[in-house]
Amino acid sequence: MDYVLIIVLEMLRAISWLVLLASGLAIIFGMMRVINFAHGEFLMLGGYITIMTHNAGVPLWISILVLAPLTVGLFGVLVERLIIRHLYGRIIDSLLATWGRSLLMIGGITLIFGNTVQGVSTPLGGLAIGDYQVPLYNFVLIGFAIAIMATTWAVLKFTKAGLIARATMQNPDMAETLGIRTTWVYMTTFGIGSAVTGLAGGLVAPLTGVVPSMSVNFVGQSFITVITGGASMIAGTLSASTLLGTISQGMTFATGPVYGDAALLLAALVLLRVLPQDITGRIFKKSL
Amino acid sequence: MKRYVEENGGELVETEFFPLDVTQFGSTISKIQAAKPDIVLSALVGTAHLGFYRQWAASGMKGEIPIASTTFAAGGTDAVILTPEEGDGILTSYGYYTSIDNPTNTAFKEKVAAAYPDNPPILSELAEVTWEGVMIWADAVREAGSIEREPLLEVMETGKSYDMPVGSVSIDPKTHHAIRDVYIAELQDQEFVIKESFPQVQPADTQMVCNLEETPDANVHHEISL
Fold first, then answer.
1. Pairing state of beta strands B40-42 and B178-188?
2. Is A211 in contact with B61 (Cβ distance < 8 A)?
3. For chain A: N or C, fewer Cβ within 10 A?
4. Sign (positive/negative) of CA torsion B73, B76, B80, B84?
5. What is the pLDDT of residue A283?
6. CB neighbours (10 Å) of residue B182?
């Protein structure tokens, strides 16, 4: 019984993990059809800011929840103004530019901080469930995944800003005609997407080793989730994360991590074959 | 690992393998908590896998079941990236630790520190054996007066012993591998404290399959069967 509970918790954790990794990317991709190839480096930057500020004496939660998203968000705005803004609608060029930026960020961080910085321990300790103990931090991950999805949904659905964002997403020319300055919408969206990614990076930091090249461990999962889910930020991210997280974690428990990883890839492959227009292109068409 | 566990009367409960980009170890840790083994042997590598030790500590497993590793901090950096609360107590076994106490090692560490005053590199087995290799080669070149392969081999095969930071090292003529000291050490406060030393260990694994004294021109890829 305890074991079943542990498996369910781990699956929820895996789903939240994918939601956290992918939502920043999904916000940017969903709004402006720009694929941020430096997504992994934004995560890394969030992680670095968290551990550097924490090692300098800032309380861990402030580092994770305030400093990481704020800094990465501002950095995102800067990047949008300087680079991305010139490349809207040129998907290949923007891929190249963001990829170049990812290399630049890896090199820059290595140059500034070096390859090895002491990380931070996972806070909060463990929770005993029968014979098992799980990190309480898992619940933080699950909580934030829910919070990010719920906030995005509420903003898009109920606020004026959300309405403007959706209008710009659906038809930028028409939105412009109605007096919306779409470039500002894009800039804000890119900033918010970056901030969410920074937050995810901050949340990831106490779980794994933070080094300049860490992004390779996360970009695969982020991109697969967004591509499988499709362009609608919430339904797409949620459905893809749930599906892939459950399948991969189920396989991991049943057989081992190698097959868990393989199952995630296989599930994504099958899905894209069956639904070439991704999940939200086919099933939840009208959703956000 | 399997072989050593079984040879010494142990029982292998389970083996799991991890792709290098796996950062989440919750399922594995739960499985270990269910199986309650006496010890966990880790061959995890890379920064993604550091997540295991981090989540192990976060799951309250630190100090419950000991962890030994033949890969942890092989390059030295893992010991610094983990905080002392997470890393203390991990056992490793390598052919070099900075805490080895002899004059050659002290001089070696001083030279390295002098060469990189701003940012002294972390020394590990990988760094020290590379130094050994170059120094042994240089010594043979000096003695043979040549850089050709054959005369160098002749010098090294004499079983000459070299005074290295790890202690005395010599070349086994049968396998051309090193006969050297090996240690078991425990991580304490990001430094390895030597617990046990095994002087002049023969390269027993390669000696099982390779004999260059009998077949000096052997050109085979040996596989040691487990």
1. unpaired
2. no
3. N
4. positive
5. 65
6. 16
**Whole-angstrom Cα distance, residue B181 to residue A135?**
40
For residue B166, tell me if it sits in a domain.
Answer: yes
Specify the residue for token string 């670095």.
A48
pLDDT at position A210, please? 80
Q: Is residue B35 part of a domain?
A: no
Asked whether the predicted pLDDT for residue A222 surpasses 80, the reply is: yes
Mean pLDDT of A54-81: 88
Provide the domain count of chain B: 1
- Determine phi and psi for B50, rounding to 5 degrees: -60, -25
Residue A277, pLDDT > 80, answer no
- Could you say which residues from 19 to 78 on chain A have a Cβ atom under 8 Å away from some Cβ of chain B? none
Do the domain assignments include residue B114?
A: yes
Are the CB atoms for A164 and A176 separated by under 8 Å?
no
CA-based nearest residue to A233, from A157, A279, A282, A288: A288
A137/B58 Cβ within 8 A: yes
Distances (CA, A) of B67 to A30, B6, B27: 45, 18, 17
> Residue A63 has what DSSP assignment?
I
Residue of A251, A231, A283 lying closest to A29 (CA atoms): A231
Residue appearing with tokens 């190698």:
A258
Is the separation of the CB atoms in B89 and B66 below 8 Å?
yes
> Residue A38 above 70 pLDDT?
yes
DSSP reduced 3-state for A55? helix
Model's pTM, two decimal places? 0.79
Mutation site for A-interface testing, chosen from B13, B21, B24, B85 by largest number of A Cβ within 10 Å: B24
Please state the separation of Cα B39 from the chain's center in Å. 19
Task: Collapse the DSSP code of A128 into the 3-class scheme (helix H, G, I; strand E, B; otherwise coil) and give the result.
Answer: strand
The CATH number of whichever domain residue B173 belongs to comes to 3.40.50.2300
Of B23, B27, B47, the CB nearest to A10: B27
Would you call A98 helix, strand, or coil by DSSP? helix
* Chain B residues 72-131 with a CB less than 8 Å from chain A: 77-78, 80-83, 85-86, 119, 122
Question: Which chain A residues contact residue B80 at CB under 8 A?
Answer: 116, 118
Look over chain A and give the mean of its residue pLDDT values, rounded to a whole number.
84
Q: Domain extents for chain A?
A: 2-215
Task: Identify the burial level of A167 via C-beta atoms within 10 angstroms of its C-beta, where 0-12 means exposed, 13-18 middle and 19 or more buried.
Answer: middle
- Alpha carbons A227 and A231: distance in angstroms, whole number: 8
Contact at 8 Å (CB) between A21 and A201?
Answer: no
CB distance from A115 to chain B under 8 Å? yes
Between CA A27 and CA A228 the distance in angstroms is: 14
Please indicate, yes or no, if residue B117 is contained in any of the structural domains: yes
Range of the domain at B223: 96-179+201-226
AA letter at B120: P
Reported ipTM? 0.75
| Residues whose CB falls within 8 Å of the CB of residue B91, separated by 6 or more in sequence, listed in order | B66, B67, B68, B69, B184, B185, B186, B187, B195
